[in-house]
Each structure stands twice: as C-alpha cells, then as structure tokens.
Specification:
The protein is mainly α and 447 residues long. The protein folds into two domains: 70 residues, no CATH class; 295 residues, no CATH class. Helix content is 77%, strand content 0%. It has 22 helices and no strands. Helix 7 packs across helix 20. The chain is globular, with a radius of gyration of 23 Å. It starts with a helix and ends with a helix. The model has no long low-confidence stretch (mean pLDDT 84). Belongs to the TRAP transporter large permease family. It is found in: Cell inner membrane. InterPro entries: DctM (IPR010656), TRAP_DctM (IPR004681).
C-alpha cells in the first residue's frame, strides 16, 4: 500500500474517532498500531502478509514506548502537577489572592485584576492552565459575585487568567513541546516569560477599559483594610516568593535544571504546608491522588502520540508536504499564516495537549524546512493553544470555570466575558509574530 495513502487514511481515522469523542490517547495508540502493522504487512506492489508485519510493528511500538517513558524531562511533569495541588491544599494560592485583593481591591475592577494576577502567580508555581482555572475559580469568582461584580467580568477574567499557565514558566505544554521537538526545556521556559508578562499586562488593561466603559460591572467594595491587614497580607505572600525564586530564579541563574527546580520546589511546598499548619496528611494524600490521575492522563496521551509520530515518520508524509510547498514556492508568511489558522481552528474543538501531540509530527519539519526558529515557533504555538482554551465552542477553561462557580453563572455569560480578553489575545499574538525578539531576548541572555 502506498505510504502516503496509508498516512492519509490514518489521519482521517484519527479525526473521525476524535469527532466521535473517543479519548485521544486511544485514538492515537490504536490507529498508529494498526497503521504500523499495515505498513510492514502491505509493501507497495506486494501482497498483504499479516505475519510479516506484526513482529516489526510490535518491536517498533515497544522500542518507541520504552525510549519515551525513559525520557528524563518527563519526570518534571508529575512534580509540577503535584506542586500545584500541594500549593492549593497548603493555602499558598489563597494567601496570594488575599494579598492581591487587599492591595488592588479599591481600584476600579480591582478584584478582577487581583484574580488575574493571582492566576499568574499560581501559573508560575504549577504550570497547568486547567489546574489554575479550577483552583482560582473556586476562590475568586464567588468573592467577586459577593461584591456585585458582573458574572461576565468575574468569570471571564478568571477563565482568561487561567490560560497564563500555558506561557508563564513552568508550563507543562512547554515540557511536552520540548520532548517532541528535542529543544531545551530551560530555553523554552525562559522564552515564555516576556510573552506571559505581555499577556498578563494586556488582561489588566482589558479589565481597566471594561470597568471604565461599564463601571456598574465592577462596583468598588465598601470594605476597608487596616494597616495590620496589609502587613498580614504581605507576610502571607512569602511562600509564593520562595517558590518563584526556586522555579524561575533558580532556572535562570543556572542553580537548578528545570527537573531539579520542580523537585526542590515540591519538597519546599510540602514542608511549608506542614510547618504553617495548612497541610495535613489527608490533604497531602488527596493532592497525591489528583496528581496521579492528571499525570496518567497526560502520559497516556503523550505515549500514544509518540507511537503515532513514529508511524508518520515512516510514511514520509511530512517531507512530501514540504516538497509540495517548495514546488509551489509558498512564501514563509503564507505558511506561518496557514499554521496560525490551523491551530486556531483546532483549538476550538480539541484540548491543548491533544493538539500539541497530534500536530507536531507534521508542523515541526515544515517549520524547520523554512528555516524558522523552533523556540519562537514554540511560543507561538503555546500562545495559540492558550487562546484555544477560551475559544468557543469548546474552550476548556470556560467549562472548568462553569464547573467550579455558582449555578447562577451561565455558560453563555462566561463565553461573553472571555470575548473581551480574546480581542487582547489577538493583539498579543500579532506582536509575537511580528517581533520574534519578544520570545528570544531572555533566552539569548543565558549561556
């Protein structure tokens, strides 16, 4: 069977299965296994021989799975996920939000700004957008509703703020991207700092403009805080500062590798939680259980994607597409624009991890063939996935916020709220595309 035809059939099968809501790990694993067996059993111009194809296919699946599972960077994924759950159960994220609420609460839209900044701080500890949206949504949305904030502003701000976990290091998406593209996790983490700060600043500006145009959506709280409250709030942020210093400062200064930073920060978070009396053995066990569930899900998806990548490379479909683009002399700008549209459309229907592992086997060779920087492209892809988290009709963060907020907040209100932030995301995306230095400046300062 012609390898290109086989690849086309396999890709079509994956899309059909995904449309039928089959879990993406099983889609990729099953289709790639059947594809490999067919590839080795049905050579072009020859007859189909199942016995000839099973052994090499199983051997290749086993070797690909083994090499992937023994990838050292994978070890930081459960560590950062666990760090996020421990930080939540240990009250670190709650204390951070309380301090921001006190500092910013009297500003127009101050509670929404505090929520977005709290999401940024949580993201810088955990690296998970979904975990950030879930944890901060439980804390901040009811608080804003209690002060008569518009449900659209309250829920939209947290849904958008939760996406910052995709760009601000340590980002789990950057870890997965690094593994599949063989790039440095450290360099990718550093590349996400300026774009993450730019997105955060844009969200704060969006809230300021929103409350300027519709002040009734964000009434000023009538609560006053004493100097003692302010001092207590400042004192409560020191665990967050310590963890940020270990994760970001330690990686940038070369004190820790990303994996070492994940391990050290996890241990510190556990120690701080118990020392402050905010973490118990029961909550630690619950955090461990949640970590295992989330890590297993990510590993299964990535493992299926690794086998699928192996199958795609054998069919040589990506070089064929690249040769075709070069034959029609497609300009680089058109190729990049096509990739942006491609990822935006996928982001409306699939989760971020699924998109990443499904598309990289095709897009990375295309990008390298046009001489584009893979670190810059990684930032662009992660930003596009970040946008997908709040884009209708799926918008995973929107559904997460809906699941953790009062029933009075409707799905339609959340989607209308995030539409303001989507406009800002479009502006930031254009800046990142036009000015690659925004992504490459900080990595360029490190040896």
């Amino acid at each position: 069977m012609d390898p290109l035809l086989l690849a086309a059939v396999a890709i079509g099968a994956v899309l059909v299965l995904l449309a039928l809501r089959v879990p993406i790990a099983f889609c990729l694993g099953t289709v790639s296994a059947l594809g490999l067996i067919t590839f080795f059993s049905w050579r072009p111009g020859g007859a189909f021989d199942l016995e000839r194809g099973i052994e090499p296919a199983l051997t290749l699946i086993g070797s690909a799975a083994y090499s992937f599972v023994h990838s050292y960077p994978l070890s930081m994924i459960p560590l950062f996920i666990g760090l996020g759950h421990v930080a939540y159960h240990g009250g670190i994220t709650t204390d951070l939000y309380r301090a921001l609420r006190i500092w910013l609460g009297r500003l127009p839209g101050g509670l929404a700004m505090a929520s977005v900044m709290g999401c940024a701080g949580f993201s810088a500890i955990t690296g998970s957008s979904v975990a950030c949206a879930a944890a901060m949504g439980r804390i901040t949305v009811p608080e804003m509703l209690r002060y008569n904030y518009s449900p659209r502003l309250a829920s939209g701000a947290v849904a958008a703020g939760g996406t910052l976990g995709s760009l601000i290091p340590p980002s789990l998406l950057f870890v997965i991207y690094a593994i599949f593209t063989e790039q440095s996790v450290k360099v990718l983490f550093l590349a996400g700092i300026l774009p993450g700060i730019l997105s955060l600043a844009g969200y704060l500006i969006t809230i300021a403009v929103w409350t300027w145009r519709r002040p009734e959506d964000a009434p000023k709280p009538d609560t006053t805080f004493t100097p003692g409250d302010v001092r207590e709030a400042v004192a409560g942020t020191w665990p967050t500062v310590v963890l940020l210093a270990v994760v970001i400062g330690g990686i940038y200064l070369g004190v820790f590798t990303p994996t070492e930073a994940a391990a050290v920060s996890f241990v510190i978070a556990v120690i701080l939680g118990f020392a402050r009396g905010r973490l118990t053995m029961a909550s630690l066990v619950e955090a461990a259980r949640d970590t295992v569930v989330q890590t297993t899900m990510i590993f299964l998806i990535a493992l299926g994607a690794k086998v699928f990548t192996t199958f795609v490379s054998l069919t040589r479909v990506t070089p064929a597409v690249l040769d075709w683009l070069q034959s029609v002399d497609a300009p680089t700008v058109m190729v990049v624009a096509g990739l942006v549209v491609f990822y935006l459309v996928l982001g409306m229907f699939l989760d971020s991890i699924g998109i990443l592992v499904l598309t990289l086997p095709f897009t990375v060779p295309l990008v390298t063939g046009y001489g584009l920087d893979l670190v810059w492209f990684g930032v662009i892809v992660i930003k596009l996935l970040e946008i997908g988290l709040i884009t209708p009709p799926i918008g995973l963060n929107v559904f997460v916020i809906k699941s953790v907020t009062p029933s009075s907040v409707t799905l339609g209100q959340i989607f209308r709220g995030v539409s303001w932030f989507l406009l800002l995301d479009g502006v930031v995306l254009l800046l990142l595309l036009a000015v690659p230095a925004l992504s490459l400046f900080i990595p360029g300062t490190v040896d």
